[in-house]
Amino acid sequence: MKAIQPCALMLLVGPDWQVEAASANVAMLGDVKPTSVIGQPLADLIGSKAIHTLRNRMSWLSSDESEVQDFGVEWGDVTFDVRAARSHEHYLIEAELAVEPRLPDGIGMVRSMSDRLSGSDPRKLAELALRQLNALTGFDHLMLLNRGGELVAAAQRGKLPPVTFKTEGLVRIAADRDAEPVPLLGNGVSELVDRAAFLAPTDDERDRLVSIDMCSAMNLPLRIDGELVGSVHAVHHAPRRCGAERRSVAHLFAERLVARMARCGWQP
Predict the structure, then answer these.
(1) Torsion sign across C-alpha atoms 48, 49, 54, 59
(2) What is the Cα–Cα distance from 152 to 145, expressed in whole angstroms?
(3) Which single residue of 128, 162, 163, 243 has CA 20 to 30 Å from 60?
(4) Domains within the chain, CATH numbers bracketed
(5) Residue 174, exposed/middle/buried by CB under 10 A (0-12, 13-18, 19+)?
(6) How far is the C-alpha of 55 from the C-alpha of 82, rounded, in Å?
(7) Strand order in 141-146's β-sheet?
């Protein structure tokens, strides 16, 4: 059975905007039973204003490979950061509990961080960038991997035991390896569920974090013109997830970085 981490809730919505599957923690939205929301209109669960905003945001989805995000969304009395993806006429919605207020100027942060990069040596550019990402995200260890999973550059607080990571093509976040998984109820659409960022870690993924004494991890895939060229992989000694908007700034900055590295001769 598929499961999600307790810091987020998951909804699968059909073409009629009725809920086809929901994570068992959907009760964080109010006095609802998880099984009772299956088959109900999404508007009944999150409200007419929220569904209008969400549908407008989803209209930005240009293909089944794209995703959209919205930050600081109020659903009832709870503030969420929302991520949505599409497959044909079905939608995956992940709503994570917001951990920080909106950033004053996310795009301006990306520009400022990019302006701090100097030189034309791809490896040195990567090292400068990862130090900024280390400060931005708060993770203890950040690594830039090429498409083959080979280490390009790293920024670390302390020492990381020898470990091999692989480049993944999806955003993946493990906020707490020991958190109790929350099952998904209803008629799951597996193709979409597998794209969720907050899927509960598998036993192998959990054991891997235990083996290097890490409690949380994050993977941000990096693409140039749609082609996967590498990823930023981060791990932390304690449970951690930085805010979704901060994570989005980090992701955009990292993709600008690899594009610049490629212009300077880097072969991913």
Answers:
(1) positive
(2) 5
(3) 243
(4) 3-97 (3.30.450.20), 106-177+214-263 (3.30.450.40)
(5) buried
(6) 12
(7) 151-156, 141-146, 227-236, 216-224, 172-174
In sign, the C-alpha dihedral spanning 49, 53, 56, 61 is negative
Contacts of 169 (CB under 8 A, 6+ apart): 221, 228
First to last CA, the chain: 36
pTM for this one? 0.93
Predicted local distance difference test score (pLDDT) of residue 188:
62
Q: What is the DSSP string of 116-156?
A: T--SS-HHHHHHHHHHHHHHHH--SEEEEEETTS-EEEEEE
Residues in a beta bridge with 228: 223
109-116 contacts, C-beta under 8 A, 24 or more apart: 109/136, 109/249, 109/253, 110/249, 110/252, 110/253, 110/256, 113/253, 114/253, 114/256, 114/257, 114/260
- Summarised one tens digit per residue, pLDDT across range 117-169 is 999 999 999 999 999 999 999 999 999 999 999 999 999 887 777 777 889 89
Closest CA to 67 of 79, 84, 81, 80: 84
44, containing H or E segment: helix 42-46
Q: Which two tokens stand for residue 53?
A: 């905003």
Contact status, residue 198 vs residue 217, Cβ threshold 8 Å = no
Nearest to 78 by CA among 56, 45, 33: 45
Mean pLDDT across the stretch 219-241? 96
Q: Helix (H) and strand (E) counts for the chain?
A: 7, 12
For residues 55 and 47, the answer to whether their CB atoms sit within 8 Å is no
For the record, the structure tokens of 255 come out as 């993709």
CB 37 within 8 A of CB 26: yes
Q: What percent of the chain has pLDDT over 70?
A: 98
